[in-house]
Structures are given as structure tokens and as C-alpha cells.
Design goal:
The chain has 884 residues and is of the alpha/beta class. 50% of the residues lie in helices and 11% in strands. Among the domains are: 202 residues, Tandem AAA-ATPase domain (Rossmann fold, 3-Layer(aba) Sandwich), CATH 3.40.50.10810; 147 residues, no CATH class; 150 residues, Rossmann fold, CATH 3.40.50; 69 residues, no CATH class.
């Protein structure tokens, strides 16, 4: 007590007080020794699993609470547990980056998460909001928002695709939600350009992108969607260590890195398997969520039993086609370099047209017959014009034929609209000979398929058999890629009285020609319970069989059915995910869902071999001169062919693997490991583990090295020192895979000089933070068009032809990165000035542009988030683990 007492009585009282507490004391020596051993200075043999769990807990600690997010307690939007967690994380990401991508698997309720995000901003914060969705989902969104009293403009993606779309009306929108955002993966289409203008004008907007399938063909699909968040600013994620977004994606496309570090920052991605494993007790409206098993069935049909070698004959004839009108550059007498590049691009497009023929042949002989007749008519008309001395440019018709299933206008109108070009520049003799050859080949193709009518169509007859025997009395959804095939099926099932009587169920069709309002009515009649129309269930209005194209493959609730038929092949595997997600949704009452897939018994390999050959040629051309995404189309890569084989083999795991899609591997597996631990142990047990602990384990099939986890303020640094290559890795997904442990993973001591390596890693982290801070401080690189205009304005001020104050305001606008749509506008202004040299017109045009763009009007100038650098002494060691 640090006191001296001479009084005997007081001293005695103190002694008795001490003896009483001494008698109650425990021997703490062993506990103290144990505590010291378990500290970073001790020698306690921590098992690797505890180092692994400590790393995950400290890394995800901030995600376990809602700190930093203003949540409103009252809500009309009920979410289940995993949706609420996603909603909170989305708000955090929006606060940090002004954009988020929600990529949960189909059927997991992204719509409800988006609805609650809109409630947060539009209802509680009174921000003006806008929803952009496919036309068939517009009424659904309006109804959902109306029920929750949320004010938001709802517009279709098709509206945005119109050239006269009044985008100036949306300039003051503050929150934009894009449903099925994968439809904005192509930068050259009008809807993408208009969305760029909406997002780019005025103060930065909050952007929510929602899609289960962000990547349809290449990683650049995802880049173009991310570009909407960044507003064309490839430096937007510099604070996350991604110096240039375009460069980052190019490296990922080449396999030099993966996208994990970006996905962690801005993407929410939970698969069906993840939710099933981690939220088994999740409920909606008091009912436990079901996750039915999906069973694949293969239906084999055989056209060759009646028409021997038809696949081989058709494939060989298609392969021999020249399709001359679509590549006149090939016949130029004197070719420029541009002509040679156009020739290669046209060859790629011809490859796509041939692939389209093969896809339509596999879909139905009826759809294929229409395509061949259309092509035969066009070639004959083109040749007829050539005989009259007119050579026509077929580029526009080529594009329509390659990318639209509908007939692109009447033949007479098409021929009339095609521009005439100079015959003197071309080898007319070769052109005439090649068209004559194509007309003869197409005539042979037509003769081969013309006799195949409905009764001889083995594929169609197998569908009838399936509907009348195996699926008798069932509610069935039939998908096909082509409208012509859908109508062919529907007409046969409805108009053949014997078939109609045998099926004995109500049948309807939905395709692109069915108006949106009528489409919604048909959906409600097919799935009345899922669409809250119980009054239709069991009545004569209820539809039992629905034939549809992929206009229904996005965002619809059709879970009254437990059976789906894919009448044609999955050339793009993401369509299988989207289709399956129509009946496999939250709220389904079924335990098993049946998915039937049609495959030809013979001849498929011949067809696929030509598709592979065409795709390889297209890829080679792309690598040589580069093709934009619209030219590349739906690329069938080797993974697609493997997927087809596995679907045909009834491999039930393929859908979940497609949903997981390795290129979008997020941190859900890491979180899942932590969640599993916290089900058995408390967070306080992990918190009691001190910083600085270490362990070691076997390296399995990876190289030897050391994992280090350092923290500095709110910054986390995971690094792996690869001993074999003397390099330091920082990709967290790669590191996670290396340190992955199970509770029984044995501890293995490593003969590695930890202290020397530790200093190297600390120094490297310090240098890395300095480099990233320097990158943050560096000016952003502008497009050349912007730099040119800034230089022209300064020159105009110098010669007193441009107002100095006006030039200053314009340059302020031009001095920020912009999206492609705005760069295109500026290019037009610059090119006109270079031609006319009119400073006044330049100044006035840029004033109009600045008013439209108005990047700083009414708001404070955007500031980069502060990026600190750290010295090695600033770094606190959380833990480390050796792999040997």
C-alpha cells in the first residue's frame, strides 16, 4: 500500500486484511508463464489453424459490424439474413467508391437488395433515383417500388438504346440502379453511350449494378461495366492499389493476375452453394428457404435415322460458302493497309454468320430453312444487281444478318437501301464466279432440309413424346434461342389436333414480338403464385406449358414450375444459369427441379468441329488486328465445348460451377471458413489471441515460403515471401489458397531465416505504400483529345481570340478523365476546329459541352481519398506462418 504505520492497532488491521486476501489468492505462476509463451515473444506451439483463423478474423473484423453506415430502423423491405448483410456491405462500398456491383447467383433476391438500397437513398435521404432494367422487368420494378413508397424513375434499357433518348432529363439523378447490367458490356451500342452521358453529367452519382452473369465472353465485359462506375477514370481505384484499371484487366485477360483484389473492393458475390452452406436456417416471410436439387436429363434425337449423313453434308456445304457480298475488300484490285484490315475483320464476321447458320440448324430445321432461304434470296438479288452494272456494299445487311434473328426488312428494301460502289476498283469476274458458286451451294443446302417436315423432325417428335409421357400433367417451361424455333414448336403443339389433345394442357408463347404488358400477363398466368396472382391458379386462365425465347431468361419469377426444357444447345453457358434461375428462385416449393436438354444422337461432333474451327480463326484475327466485342459475338471457347459434354453426360454439378465462375472468385470462401468457425467458437476467443503469433505447416503443392500479416492503422497487408523465386506476392486470393488450413492440419517447423525475410517484407510493404501514395499524388492522364483542346484554348487566349475567364472554366472541365461518349463529343469539336480554325465557334461549342458535363457545378470539387505511406516501424505484426 506504500504506507508506513507505527500504530500497532492499525498495523495489525492491515496485516489481517493482507492475510485474508493472500489466503484467497491462486498460484498464477503457470498462467503467467503460459500467457508469456503465447505472446509474440514466447515459444508456444500454435497450431497453423489458429494462425489461419486469426488472419481471417482480423481481416474481416470490420465486416462483422455496421459501423460507418447510417441504417434506418424502419423498413418496408424485408430481407433475409444474407441479403441484409449484402445490403449493409453495398452501402459501405457505395460510401467509398460511389458504385457497387451485386453479382449474387440467380434466384437469390438481388431485386430485394436493390429495392432496399433505393429505400435508403430515395425514401430516407430524398435523393432522386432512377432504375434502368430490361423492358420485361419494368412493370415489376414499378410495382415493387410503389408497394414500398419509394419514388424512382423506371426506364427500360431499350428506351436508353434510342438515339433520341432525352438524357438531359436525367442529369440531376443522384442514384442509378441498373438491373441485368451485363447488357451494358458493349461500349459501341447506343444504350451504353447514353448511360455514360447520364452518369457522367453533373455531380458523381451513386451507381448500383446488378447481374448474376457479369462476364459473358471475356473479362472486358466486366471492365466495361466497371467503367460505368469510374466514369471513364481508369485511376478510380488507385487507393485500392490498382494504378490503372484498363492495364489491370489486360493483365488479367492474359493470365498474369486475377481480379480478386478489385472484386473484394467493389463486388458482392455469393453463390447458391455459399448461401446454402452458411445460412441453412434463413427465412423469408417466416418460411424457411428451400434450395432444391437440380437434376439434368439428356434427351437424344436422331435426324440421321431418316436423313443419313445430313449433319456432315450440311456442315461441309456451309464451310465452303464464300459469302462474297460481306467481304468485297477481298476482291479489291489494289488494296491499301486499311483494306487488308477490313478484309480480315470481314472474314471474322463471315465466320460468325456461318456459326449462326450452324446454331440455327441445331435449333430446328425450320429456323435453318428460313436462314438459308433468306441468304439464297439475297445472293441472287445481289447477283442480279451486278449483272445490271451495280456493285452494292453489303456491310449493313451483313451486320443485321449476323446479329439479329429477325429478317432485316424485305429483300427489295434491303437491296434498295444498299449504297453503290465503284466497279472499277474490284475484280468483278471473281465476284460473279464466287456468288454463282454460293448460289449453287445454298441451293443444295435448301434441297437437303426442305423435305424435313414436322412429322419427320425427330427432335420435335421427341419433345411431343416427352410432354405426353414423362412430363404428362406437369407445368413446363420450354426455352429456345431463336424466335423462329419457338413459333415452330408452338404452332405444331397448338395446331395439330391430335397432339393438342394428347398434351391436354394450356400452351402459350412469349417472344420479342409480344408486347411487354401482354408478356407480364402471360407470366402471371403461368406462375400465378410466384407473382401474387392466386386468383388465377387452378382456373382455365392458368398456363401449363410456356414456350419462350431468352426474353424470359432474366429476372422473372416462374417458380410455380419445377420443370424446364432447353430445346437447343447452350452456346453461351451463362444462358443456362439465367434460364435455370427462372424456376430455381427463393420461395420455390419444390425439393427437386428437372432440367431437360436436347442433344442430337449423331452428327453433333461434326457440327461442333466446324464451330471450333471458325472460332479459332476468329480468335487469330482478333489477336492480329483486334475486334470489338460486337464483332466477337458470343464466343464459344474450349470451356463451352467442355460444358456441353458435361451437360450431355448429366453432370449435375455443372450449373453450380458455372455460377461460381472462377474468374469472379470473390472472398466468399474466406468468409465461409470464418463463419464455420464462429458457429462453434466465440469471437472473444479469437480476440484473446495476441498479435505476433506464428506457426508452420506443410506446403502441399505450392512453393516454400512465409506468410506475413501486418497492419497499420486501418490498412491490412497480406504478403507471401516465396523462398524458391525470392519474390513477394500480394494477391490475397493466391495467399489464402496457400495458407488454407483445417483444424487438424499438423504444425511443421521450418528451417527458414524468419528475421531476415521479415525485414525484407516490411521494407517492401513500406516501399509499396510510398509508391501508391506517389501514384495517388500524380496527375491523371487525360485522353489526347482533351489535351489537344486544352492546348488550343491556351493558344486562343494567347492570340486574344478566346476569353480568358471562359477558357479557365472550360479547361477546368476538360482536366478530368471522361467516359468514351464525352470523348467522342469532344473529338467532333476538335476536328471541326482543325478544319475551320474558328475560335469563337470552338469556345461556344465547349461552353455548351461544359454546361452538359458540369462536373463541378453546385458541388465541392471531388477530392482523392488520402493515401498514407508507412515506414517499417509503423507496421504491426498480426501473425506469420511458414510453409515448408
Amino acid at each position: 500500500m506504500n504506507a508506513v504505520q507505527k500504530s500497532t492497532i492499525i498495523a495489525k488491521a492491515y496485516r489481517e486484511w493482507f492475510e485474508r486476501f493472500w489466503g484467497q489468492a491462486e498460484d498464477y505462476k503457470e498462467k503467467l508463464i503460459d500467457l508469456l509463451r503465447k505472446s509474440k515473444h514466447g515459444d508456444y506451439p500454435w497450431e497453423p489453424y489458429w494462425v489461419y483463423i486469426k488472419s481471417l478474423y482480423e481481416y474481416f473484423r470490420d465486416d462483422l459490424d455496421t459501423e460507418g453506415v447510417d441504417l434506418f430502423t424502419s423498413s418496408k423491405v424485408e430481407l433475409t439474413e444474407f441479403q441484409e448483410e449484402g445490403h449493409v456491405k453495398a452501402l459501405k462500398i457505395l460510401n467509398k467508391y460511389d458504385g457497387v456491383m451485386i453479382c449474387d447467383s440467380v434466384g437469390l433476391g438481388k431485386t430485394y437488395m436493390g429495392k432496399k438500397i433505393l429505400e435508403h437513398y430515395a425514401y430516407y435521404q430524398r435523393k432522386r433515383a432512377m432504375v434502368i432494367c430490361p423492358a420485361q422487368l419494368r412493370d415489376m420494378w414499378r410495382s415493387e417500388l410503389y408497394d414500398a413508397n419509394i419514388q424512382a424513375d423506371v426506364h427500360s434499357q431499350e428506351e436508353l438504346g434510342q438515339k433520341d433518348c432525352p438524357i438531359e432529363r436525367f442529369q440531376d439523378v443522384e442514384v442509378v440502379l441498373v438491373d441485368e447490367s451485363h447488357n451494358f458490356r458493349n461500349t459501341i451500342i447506343e444504350r451504353y453511350k447514353n448511360l455514360e452521358r447520364i452518369l457522367g453529367a453533373g455531380p458523381r452519382k451513386k451507381l448500383v449494378l446488378m447481374t448474376a452473369t457479369p462476364i459473358n465472353n471475356t473479362l472486358l465485359d466486366l471492365y466495361h461495366q466497371m467503367n460505368l462506375i469510374t466514369r471513364g477514370d481508369d485511376y478510380h481505384f488507385r487507393a485500392a492499389g490498382i494504378g490503372n484499371l484498363k492495364t489491370y484487366f489486360v493483365r488479367a485477360e492474359k493470365g498474369l493476375t486475377n481480379l480478386f483484389n478489385l472484386l473484394e473492393e467493389v463486388v458482392i458475390r455469393r453463390t447458391r452453394h455459399y448461401v446454402k452452406e452458411n445460412y441453412p436456417e434463413a427465412t423469408i416471410n417466416g418460411k424457411r428457404i428451400k434450395f432444391p436439387e437440380r437434376t439434368l436429363h439428356t434427351v437424344r434425337y436422331d435426324l440421321e435415322s431418316t436423313y443419313e449423313n445430313i449433319y456432315e453434308d450440311i456442315v461441309n456445304l456451309i464451310n465452303l460458302l464464300n459469302l462474297t457480298p460481306y467481304n468485297l475488300e477481298q476482291y479489291k484490285i489494289d488494296k491499301t493497309k486499311k483494306d487488308q484490315e477490313d478484309d480480315m475483320r470481314n472474314q471474322a464476321l463471315i465466320g460468325l454468320i456461318k456459326t449462326l447458320f450452324l446454331k440455327r440448324f441445331e435449333s430446328s430445321t425450320h429456323a435453318f430453312r428460313i436462314s438459308i432461304n433468306r441468304q439464297l434470296g439475297f445472293q441472287r438479288a445481289f447477283l442480279d444487281q451486278l449483272e445490271k452494272g451495280r456493285l452494292l456494299d453489303g456491310a449493313e445487311y451483313r451486320k443485321k444478318l449476323a446479329f439479329e434473328e429477325e429478317e432485316p426488312g424485305t429483300l427489295e428494301a434491303v437491296i434498295t437501301d444498299l449504297p453503290q460502289i465503284n466497279t472499277g476498283d474490284y475484280d468483278i469476274g471473281r465476284i460473279r464466279a464466287d456468288i454463282d458458286n454460293d448460289v449453287e451451294l445454298l441451293g443444295r443446302v435448301h434441297s437437303a432440309v426442305e423435305p424435313i417436315k414436322e412429322d419427320e423432325d425427330d427432335k420435335l417428335q421427341h419433345l411431343v413424346s416427352l410432354l405426353t409421357i414423362d412430363l404428362a400433367g406437369k407445368k413446363v417451361l420450354i426455352f429456345t434461342y431463336f424466335k423462329d424455333t419457338a413459333r415452330y414448336i408452338y404452332r405444331y403443339l397448338r395446331e395439330n389436333e391430335d397432339i393438342k389433345a394428347a398434351i391436354n394442357r394450356s400452351i402459350r408463347i412469349i417472344d420479342s414480338d409480344v408486347p411487354t404488358a401482354q408478356r407480364q400477363a402471360l407470366i402471371e398466368r403461368f406462375a400465378p403464385r410466384a407473382n401474387l396472382r392466386d386468383d388465377l391458379a387452378g382456373t382455365e386462365k392458368e398456363i401449363e406449358i410456356l414456350v419462350s425465347t431468352d426474353v424470359l431468361s432474366e429476372g422473372q419469377n416462374l417458380q410455380d414450375a419445377d420443370t424446364m426444357i432447353n430445346y437447343d444447345l447452350h452456346w453461351n453457358p451463362t444462358r443456362m444459369i439465367q434460364r435455370a434461375g427462372r424456376i430455381d428462385r427463393l420461395g420455390t416449393p419444390f425439393d427437386i427441379l428437372d432440367i431437360y436438354n436436347f442433344f442430337p444422337e449423331k452428327g453433333l461432333e461434326k457440327l461442333l468441329n466446324l464451330v471450333r474451327k471458325l472460332q479459332r480463326k476468329l480468335t487469330q484475327i482478333n489477336e492480329t488486328i483486334g475486334l470489338d466485342s460486337s464483332v466477337m459475338g458470343e464466343v464459344a471457347d474450349p470451356k463451352t465445348f467442355n460444358t456441353l459434354d458435361r451437360i450431355a453426360a448429366e453432370d449435375h454439378s455443372i450449373i453450380e460451377e458455372l455460377e461460381a465462375f472462377s474468374e469472379l472468385a470473390g472472398n466468399e470462401l474466406m468468409k465461409q471458413q470464418l463463419s464455420q468457425f464462429l458457429k462453434s467458437y466465440s469471437a472473444s476467443q479469437i480476440e484473446s489471441i495476441p498479435f505476433g503469433i506464428h506457426s508452420g505447416k506443410g506446403r502441399r503443392d505450392v512453393g516454400s515460403g512465409v506468410f506475413f500479416y501486418y497492419k497499420a492503422e486501418d490498412n491490412h497487408f497480406w504478403r507471401f515471401y516465396d523462398v524458391g523465386y525470392n519474390r513477394i506476392l500480394d494477391n490475397r486470393l493466391d495467399i489464402f489458397r496457400r495458407i488454407y488450413c483445417k483444424p487438424d492440419t499438423p504444425r511443421i517447423e521450418a528451417d527458414i531465416d524468419i528475421y531476415e525475410i521479415k525485414e525484407k517484407v516490411k521494407e517492401a510493404i513500406s516501399e509499396d505504400t510510398k509508391a501508391k501514395r506517389a501514384a495517388m499524388m500524380a496527375p491523371k492522364k487525360l485522353d489526347k483529345v482533351q489535351s489537344d483542346l486544352i492546348a488550343i484554348l491556351r493558344e486562343g487566349v494567347g492570340v486574344r481570340k478566346v476569353d480568358k475567364a471562359a477558357a479557365y472554366d472550360i479547361i477546368k472541365t476538360l482536366n478530368v478523365p471522361m467516359s468514351t461518349a464525352f470523348i467522342k463529343d469532344l473529338k467532333t469539336v476538335r476536328d471541326l476546329f482543325n478544319k475551320e480554325k474558328d475560335y469563337f465557334e470552338l469556345q461556344e461549342s465547349l461552353k455548351v459541352f461544359s454546361k452538359q458535363f458540369e462536373s463541378n457545378k453546385g458541388v465541392e470539387e471531388e477530392k482523392e481519398p488520402e493515401k498514407k505511406s508507412f515506414t517499417p516501424e509503423d507496421l504491426e505484426l498480426v501473425c506469420f506462418m511458414t510453409l515448408s
